Amino acid sequence: MKVLGFESSCDETGVALIEVPERGAPKLLGQALHSQIAMHQAYGGVVPELASRDHIRRVLPLTREVLDQAGVALNEIDVIAYTQGPGLAGALLVGAGVAVSLAAALGRPTLGIHHLEGHLLSPFLSADAPEFPFVALLVSGGHTQLMRVDEVGAYEILGETIDDAAGEAFDKSAKLLGLPYPGGPHLARLAEQGDATQFDLPRPLLHSGKPDFSFAGLKTAVLTQVKKLGDAPSEQQRADLAAATQAAIVEVLVKKSLLALKQTGLKRLVVAGGVGANSLLRQQLNTACAKRQLRVHYPELSLCTDNGAMIAMAAALRLQRGMADLQPAGGFEVRPRWALDAI
Ligand code: ATP
Ligand code: MG
Ligand code: FE
C-alpha cells in the first residue's frame, strides 16, 4: 500500500510518499520540502496569509517532485494523508483541500493526521526506530510536552508548559539578541562561542516535582540582561548570553525528561520537534540517559522541524494497525486547535 502525505500547518510545505507493508517498517519512497522561512524573515515571524498563498504555489510542484523521485504514478497511490491540525487555519486548508481534491480525482480515501502525532512518530523514520512504550519529549515552536506513549494513538500528557514553548523561548530570546527568525538555530550557533557561566538565568519550575514547564520568565530575564548590556554589547557578551539562555532551556528539558522517566518507570525516551535538533540538548540527554541505562531516540536532524514524511509515517503506522479513520473524498474540516490526547 502506498500513502502520500501532505504537511502545511505553518510555514513549511511538505510532501512525502511511503510504502506501507502489512508488517515491518514502512519505507520512505520520496519526499520534498519547501520552507518559507526566507519569505517570513522580513516580518520577524510567520504571516498567515502569505503562508497560505505560498503553500498553494508549492504543493503541486512538490508533489510531482516526490512522485518522480519515487518513480510512482499518481494512480498507484492508495491513501492520501494530510495534516488536519493544529496549525494556521488558512495554511491547513490548503493541504487538506489539495489532499481531498486529489483523493476525489483518484477515487481514494483520505486520512487526517494530527500534526503533533507526526512529530511524535517522526523517529520511526530513523534506522534505529524506537519500541513502545516510551516517554516522549515534544519540543517544538508551539508546544512543550512530556507524554507517556504506550502505542500509536495512546498518548497521555504527563506535563506541559504553562506559558511559552521551548522553541518560542529560543526564538524570543534570539530576537532580543538581534538574531533573525526563527532564532533557535541562530542562537545555538552563537552560543558555541559563548561561556554560559557569565550570566545567571532562572530555571523556572525546575524543582516543582512535576513534569511541567514555564519559559516566559526566562525571556523576561534575557530582556533584563540585554537592557543592562546597553546599545553596543560586544560579540563575546552576546555569545555568552546566548550560551546561558541555551543552557537554561536545555537543563530544564533534560531534568524534566529524567523526572518523567523516573515517575513512569519507563526506560526509553523519544525526542521530537524542532528543538530536538539542538546539539547541546542531544549531548546532555545522551550523557544523562547513558548514565542511567536509558535509551534515547531522535528524528533525523532534517526531520525535527515540519515535513511531509512525518505525516505520511503517522498515517502508515495507523494503517498498519487498522487504526486509520479513512474518509471517502468529499467535504473536510481542519482543526486549528486540537489537543493530542483528544484523538
Ligand atoms: P508546532 O509543531 O508546535 O506547531 P512548529 O511546527 O512551528 O510548532 P517545529 O517546526 O517543530 O515547530 O520547530 C520549530 C522550532 O524549533 C523553532 O522554534 C526553532 O527555533 C526551533 N529550532 C530548530 N532548530 C533548533 C536548534 N538547533 N536549536 C534550538 N531550537 C531549534
Ligand atoms: Mg516551521
Ligand atoms: Fe511542527
From TrEMBL:
Provide the binding site for Fe cation. Answer: H115, H119, D306
Location relative to the cell: Cytoplasm
Q: Which UniProt keywords apply?
A: Acyltransferase, Cytoplasm, Iron, Metal-binding, Transferase, tRNA processing
Could you tell me which residue ranges the Gcp-like domain spans? 28-312
Q: Which CDD domains match?
A: ASKHA_NBD_TsaD_bac
Residues at which substrate binds: L138, V139, S140, G141, G142, D171, G184, N278
GO function term, MF aspect, one: tRNA N(6)-L-threonylcarbamoyladenine synthase activity
- Which coenzymes or cofactors are required? Fe(2+)
Classify the source by domain of life. Answer: Bacteria
Cite the SUPFAM superfamilies for this sequence. Actin-like ATPase domain
Per the UniProt entry, the Enzyme Commission number(s) are 2.3.1.234
Note one Pfam family from the annotation.
TsaD
Q: Provide the top EC class.
A: transferase
Cofactor details (free text): Binds 1 Fe(2+) ion per subunit.
Q: Which reaction does it catalyse?
A: L-threonylcarbamoyladenylate + adenosine(37) in tRNA = N(6)-L-threonylcarbamoyladenosine(37) in tRNA + AMP + H(+)
Tell me the protein family, please.
Belongs to the KAE1 / TsaD family.
Q: What does this protein do?
A: Required for the formation of a threonylcarbamoyl group on adenosine at position 37 (t(6)A37) in tRNAs that read codons beginning with adenine. Is involved in the transfer of the threonylcarbamoyl moiety of threonylcarbamoyl-AMP (TC-AMP) to the N6 group of A37, together with TsaE and TsaB. TsaD likely plays a direct catalytic role in this reaction.
> What name goes with this protein?
tRNA N6-adenosine threonylcarbamoyltransferase
Gene behind this protein: tsaD
